[in-house]
Structures are given as C-alpha cells and as structure tokens.
Amino acid sequence: MVVAKPKLSYEESRQKRIEENKKRMEALNLPQLSQALRTSPFKPSPKKQSKPRIVEKQLVVVRRSSRVANLPSPVYKEVVVERVAIPRRTSKPRDLNLVYASEEDRAEALEKAEKLESSLGTDFPIFIKSMLPSHVSGGFWLGLPVHFCKTNLPKRDEVMTLIDEEGEEYPTIYLVRKTGLSGGWKGFAVAHELADGDAVVFQLVRSTTFKVIAL
C-alpha cells in the first residue's frame, strides 16, 4: 500500500526552489563573482579624440617662360571703344561721270540697229552689240558673241581693224580664248563717245576687218 505524500503549499514550494537555486549558485561560485562586480570601480573607455583638420596653404610661383621671365609685368590700360556708325555701302559705278541708260533708251537703240542690220543685206556676217558700263568705262573690255567668233573669226589671237562711217581705222587686239576685243577698243569707244545703252552694228567685211556703225 502506497502512502501519498502530503501536497506542499505554494509558499513551501517557493521556498524549496529558492534553496535549490542558492545551492546551484554556490556550486558555480556566482555570489563571489557578483560581489566582485559590485565593488570594482567603473572605468569608461576613453573617447577617441578627433584631430582637427589642418588645411595647409602654400603660395606657388607661376612658372614663366624663360623668354619673358626677366621682363617687367605688363601694364594694362583701360581702352574705351566708341561705336561709330558706318554708312552702308552701295554699289557705285567705277566712272562717276557715267550716265546709265533707261530700258526705253536701250530698246530704242536696239530697234534702230536691227533696222540697219536688215538694210545691209546678208553678204557679210553681222551682229549687234548693246553697250554696257564695262564696254564703255573702266577696263573697256568688249566681249563678242561666242557663236559668231567660232564661226567667222580667226582661230588665234589677231589684230582686228575697226572702220567707222568716216573711214577711220582703229586696230584692236582680238583674244580668241576670251572671244573679245581688248587693246585698242578703248580708243574707238572714246573717239565715238559710246555710252551705256548705245547699240553698235559690227559687219565683218574681211577676215580681220569690221565695219562698225554706232547708233
């Protein structure tokens, strides 16, 4: 027959657990360690002190070229620039005394030249040239119709003689590559007072001779 042990009260159980824990602590030497921790003075770890940042400034001598190293430093002067209104350029004729023909005058002269051309017949090659500023001023260069030159004029540079209505002769230089009259043409133009808009009839009466009529 088993006799049941009497049930311990709460206070008795609590006291029993305390005694058991005390024995375990004594076995692990925990009371002495706890006491040592209480009595030892607390020493905080020293705080790391940050060093102040030192910025070192140095004066650096700029390296100068050996060619100018010994020369004095340049002195700069203040320059005041004034804006000047420049008049707008307009195209001007090279000859200020040149009179420009109107379109009506030019057309009238061409009409007269065409009537003269038709009256001269077709026995000799003919062409009409309306005068421009470059023909009667400045360089006095007279370009001739390319087709007429290739068909009727010499194949090399030649002296072409111009004969006016009075029978006066004017030698000129014909340049085959430029198909025009150069030296000597100025003398003819000045002598006959040719102006812008005039019409001139050229009739080739011989291989190197033109009969010229200015209108």
TrEMBL record:
GO cellular component assignments: nucleus
Keyword DNA-binding part of the UniProt annotation: yes
Positions of region (Disordered): 1-53
GO molecular function, one term: DNA binding
SMART domains hit by this protein: B3
Identification of the protein by name: TF-B3 domain-containing protein
InterPro entries named in the record: B3_DNA-bd (IPR003340), DNA-bd_pseudobarrel_sf (IPR015300), REM16-like (IPR044837)
Organism listed in the record: Corchorus capsularis (Jute)
UniProt biased composition (Basic and acidic residues): 8-26
CDD domains per record: B3_DNA
Keyword Hydrolase: no
Lineage: Eukaryota, Viridiplantae, Streptophyta, Embryophyta, Tracheophyta
